[in-house]
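Quick log. Single chain, no ligands specified.
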Amino acid sequence: MAVKSWDEPGHWTLNRSGWGYSDDGGETWTQPPEAVWDGDTNFGQAALVERDGYLYVFGIHGGRYGGVALARTPVDSVLDMAAYTYWDGADWVSDINAAVEIVPAPVGEAVCQVERLPRPLDHDLPR
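-> predicted structure:
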């Protein structure tokens, strides 16, 4: 996420948002210039979930005022922005502008939690 300007409280404008990766355990990073979203999309800030061979991207605008939109791409195509599809409320489509909010505004952070254990804390723990 590259912030263009800090605006009124809870709002900021983004230049772009994109992917970076490391091949050496985080010593150095690569940011492919083609693996970005424009700053005015619903994918300025994102939370990620990998499931069934796809990377699901729960995204919001820059700031703390928009709703959550959903994108996905095959796991092996994360850096190929043309491989992404967006949920339009009925189907997966290639038009990013067709993405609908799956969680209504306002959303302060794009955070996902995936439970891998069935209801891990559904009982009182000993004190």
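The first strand starts at residue 2 and ends at 6.
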